[in-house]
Amino acid sequence: MTQSFNLDKWLEQNLFNELPLAIAIIDPEFNVIKANQSYAQTFGNWQNKKCYEVYKNLGSPCAQCKNKSVFKDGKSRVREVTSIGKNGEKVCRIRKTMPIISDDGSIPYLIETTTDIMAAKMIRQKYRNLFEHVPCDVMIINRDFKILEANKRKHDVFGNIEGSYCYQILKSRNSKCNDCTAKMTFEDGQLHSGRSTVINKDGKRIDLLVTTVPFEAKNGNFDHVMEMAVDITETLALQEELKRMNNTLNSLIASSLYGIIAVDERNNISVLNQAAREMLKISDEYEFSVSDMENVFPKKFLESVLNSEKQIYLRETDIRDLNGDSFPVRLTGINLVANSNCNSRAIWINDIREYKKLEGEKLEAERMAAVGKTVAGLAHGIKNVLTGLEGGEYMLSSGLKKANEERIQKGMNMLSRNTKRVSTFVKEFLNFSKGEEIEVNLCDPLDLAREIVSNFALSVDKLGINLLIDFQEHIAPAAIDSEGMLECLSNILANAIDACRISESTHQLQIDFRVYEQDEAIIYEVRDNGCGMDYEVKRKVFTTFFTTKGLGGTGLGLLMTQKIIQQHGGEVQFDSMPDQGTTFKIILPRRCLPKLINIIDESDIELNQ
Asked: Quick count: other Cβ atoms within 10 Å of Cβ 567?
């Protein structure tokens, strides 16, 4: 048989060194007379040293020495101490000092055990910091709904609330809340969340988002609940403000006279107000889509909205409703998320049918007013012509009676001249008063100028007038009524020739005819150095039946020119000085020119910051 194991001996020889505690034996002189391996590892060399040398590197006993008290009264002491480790670092430990009592009752030695709690203390401190400084209100509640502990943030808002019932101190109630999340957590041990309105220490109502969880639960059993609350007062106020703003925006969109269509980031129609439905004849049952937009709006406009960071504005164009009928509108579009691949965008539609109708009625009213003036002027002019006819008739009749051939010829000439004048009056009056719309086509502005020069080349040559032309090259085609523009240019160039013809100047007579484009406007300019016009003539130049040509003119030429140019969206400007000459300009801004059907010029699209 093997020799029996002597437990007492093993404990005596080995347990002292094997225990995972720093153990030391200290005599009444505070000498460390014996220590185990853990003690040496913790505090370093202890032999021939006093305890205060080992623990705190002091030269004399501690001021409040606990070991002295144990020697004196024989009672054990447990305390938390901070000492110096063998590497000079501060270490937090739990130290227990117990007396070793001899048979006679004396205390020859003390035994001290030291346990390092630095790691545990750091963890505890971290959790305490977390509890105190977490950015929400935290408190611990027991099953009686008393507040056992609250963090600093809770104290700052509600004051000293420990020991109070939560429903009393926070809500001024005498009983528990029916919707209490803490109550729910106590009942089922689960996490619960809800909203709660409480009163802070200043009497102000605060809205909180509350979450409760079991605290210190063991095996499913717990007696405390941790409540965490976040102040959502401002969030709820902002939420209400956003609701009001959203309701206001929806009301504005719904009541807007503009048609409004918005496309979200998923390329779905997110806004389609009633005005847009009515304009485009979209029934309430029909689900309008992005593909429908491509049939309604000009393709170039939609592409410009998608590809631009700026607002796109189309002053005037035509769109189609779902029945395929076109009508005039102004369009505004904006890419709602610039610098991205997002398709989110919005389009505003301004239906200008009524505007165009009113504009037409206004023009018609102005035209009819001019017709009234024209009729009056025509009657006056014809009265003068009739006087001439009567004079011619008298000359012819008396010449026949007297067989005077010279008198007969003179009478015939008077009748012929005044008959021709009546014919001219009537034709120009009909042209001016008929109110026909211009018929535009895409034509070259320079070709019109070249044709006019060709028509008048013989006339200026016979009169000895220098006609100088200056045509800018490569002017892009434009939507112009070619016949109407030829008439306008003929009137202006004819007036320039007449001004040179009746001029008394001794200088070489000259007409400069320029065609150029400036600031996206086509300009025809005719400048002469003829007789010019004084103030009174300039004031009447665009009035009905005003002429400086005596019986050779009707006074409708420039009035007709102004009408045609206005129908093109342009204007006629002139400047003149007596005996120095006159300059006429026809200015045709491209953006105001009439639209060709199904064609949108890039110049019509405006980019706005």
From this structure: 16
Amino acid at position 493, single letter:
L
**Angle of the 445-463 helix axis to the 482-501 helix axis, nearest 10:** 30
Kindly report whether the global pTM for this prediction surpasses the value 0.70: no
Query: How distant, in Å, are the alpha carbons of 384, 406, 502 from that of 393?
Result: 14, 14, 31
What per-residue confidence (pLDDT) applies to 5? 66
Tokens 């809500």 map to which residue?
171
548: confidence class by pLDDT, cuts 50, 70, 90: very low
Cα–Cα distance for residue pair 161/139, rounded to 1 Å:
10
Contact present, 95 and 81 (Cβ < 8 Å): yes
Contacts of residue 366, defined as CB under 8 A and 6 or more positions apart, other chains included, come to none
Phi, psi of 225 (to 5 degrees): -125, 135
Instruction: Say which residue the tokens 């200056």 belong to.
Output: 470
User: What does the chain come to in residues?
Assistant: 609
Q: Is the dihedral of CA 486, 487, 492, 496 positive or negative?
A: positive
| CB-based contacts of 155, cutoff 8 Å, min separation 6 | 161
Say what the pLDDT of residue 65 is. 87
Instruction: Determine which helix (DSSP H) or strand (DSSP E) holds 571, and give its type and residue range.
Output: strand 571-577
For residues 89 and 529, give the distance between their C-alpha atoms in angstroms, rounded to a whole number.
108
Chain-centroid distance of CA 175 in Å reads: 52
Of 457, 458, 451, residue with least CA distance to 486:
451
Cα gap 28→43, rounded to integer Å: 20
pLDDT tens by residue, 509-537: 899 999 999 989 999 999 998 887 764 55
The number of CA neighbours under 13 Å toward the Cβ of 285 is 0
Q: Is residue 328 packed enough to be buried (19+ CB in 10 Å), middle (13-18) or exposed (0-12)?
A: middle
Please tell me the distance from the alpha carbon of residue 140 to that of residue 188, in angstroms, as a whole number.
17
Contact (Cβ atoms closer than 8 angstroms) between residue 237 and residue 207: no
Q: Is the sign of the CA dihedral 297, 302, 303, 308 positive or negative?
A: positive
Query: Distance between CA 167 and CA 175 in Å, rounded?
Result: 7
Estimate the crossing angle of helix 557-567 against helix 405-433, to 10 degrees.
20
Domains belonging to the chain, first-starting first, are 7-119 (3.30.450.20), 134-236 (3.30.450.20), 256-350 (3.30.450.20), 356-433 (1.10.287), 441-592 (3.30.565.10)
Transcribe 301-320 into DSSP letters: HHHHHHH-SSEEEEEEEEEE
